[in-house]
Amino acid sequence: MKNVKTSRQEIKNTAGNAMILNPRNYLPILGLALALLVPLIVTNSYYLGLINLVILFGAAGIAWNIVGGYARQVSLGHSIFFGIGAYTTTLLQIKFNISPWIGMFFGGVFAVLIGILMGMSVFRMKGHYFAVFTIAYSYVMMLLFQKFRGLTGGAEGLSVPFNDGSLAMFQFSSKVPYYYIFLLALVLIILLVQRLGKSRIGYYWTAIGQDEQAAMAIGINIAMAKHLALGISAFLTAILGSFYAQYVYFIEPFSMFSTHMSVEIALVAIVGGLGTVMGPVVGAIVVKPIAELTNMFLGNVLPGANYALYGLILIVAIIVIPNGLIVPINRLYQKLINRLERSSDRN
């Protein structure tokens, strides 16, 4: 009996060691460990700030990908939810001194309600008409927030009140705490979307994205699935909009609800890979630094150059890598895993 127990324990230990030594398990952990060291390596405030924006927009791209990638409902109005999250958190902080950690959830719920109302009309549209309608909604929201100046500050915008920096009020004098908070949000969103993608509703979204008529024929509730995709996407985008407001300390309707903001969120997913979890992160790593460098060097010389660059990147991405940058990166990653597994087997 004692030998049987010992054998079972040995089997468990062997299985546990095999899991730890499996590159599919330890490579993501190694990648996360390296990510945790970034602020120790990148000490320049500007470059760390750029990395923070890459992480933030990578997370926003994953949130957009739920409705735009999996369900293939290409929204160019996600700045609505981003702006609602930013404004709700900021207004609650200014008017009632409510912590942004609480205010962001009110912003998320408000964004879901707006998403439901928006979905009732836009989901009747197909293809390009759907995209155009979402753009129209973002312009309507921009005008409303400019109009009600007494509440929203109008075109002059709102400044986030600074309270000497504290975790409770989501304010820090250094960019390092923002980095770790944004990184944690990114990891949580990745895990959530991975779980959703492998769930029944995730398969529904994929079926709708591939062939809506066929999905309807096999009994999928199209309206429910689309509204759920938009609701989850809106909630997450609003939370990230709250993060953005706390990071930049100033918001105004033209930038928060602009088509430019919507395109920036969508572009990182399109360039990185539609319907993938890590694609938007890859897209953000490519798109965001290019956009920042363009604004830095050409912003005053060639106003609007960043818009032209976005269009160029989109055209090149669709022609050269229609499935996104994540596809060749996945191939290289798979080759690395196979090589490590063969090396492990030899040892």
Descriptive terms for the model:
347 residues, mainly alpha, ABC transporter involved in vitamin B12 uptake, BtuC, two-stranded antiparallel ribbon, 78% helix, 1% strand
Secondary structure topology:
Blueprint: H1 2-21, H2 23-36, H3 38-41, H4 45-70, H5 79-96, H6 100-122, H7 127-147, H8 149-152, E1 158-159, H9 175-197, H10 200-210, H11 212-217, H12 222-248, E2 250-251, H13 253-256, H14 259-272, H15 279-298, H16 305-320, H17 326-346
Antiparallel strand pairs: 1-2
Helix pairs in contact: 4-9, 4-10, 4-12, 4-14, 4-15, 5-6, 5-12, 6-12, 9-12, 10-12, 14-15, 14-16, 15-16
Short description:
The chain is mostly helical and 347 residues long. It has a single domain (40-346), classed as ABC transporter involved in vitamin B12 uptake, BtuC (Orthogonal Bundle). The protein has helices spanning 2-21, 23-36, 38-41, 45-70, 79-96, 100-122, 127-147, 149-152, 175-197, 200-210, 212-217, 222-248, 253-256, 259-272, 279-298, 305-320, 326-346, and strands at 158-159, 250-251.
What does this structure look like?
By secondary structure, the protein is mostly helical. The protein has one domain (40-346): ABC transporter involved in vitamin B12 uptake, BtuC. It contains 17 helices and 2 strands. It has helices spanning 2-21, 23-36, 38-41, 45-70, 79-96, 100-122, 127-147, 149-152, 175-197, 200-210, 212-217, 222-248, 253-256, 259-272, 279-298, 305-320, 326-346; strands spanning 158-159, 250-251. The protein has a two-stranded antiparallel sheet with strand order 1-2. α5 runs antiparallel to α6.
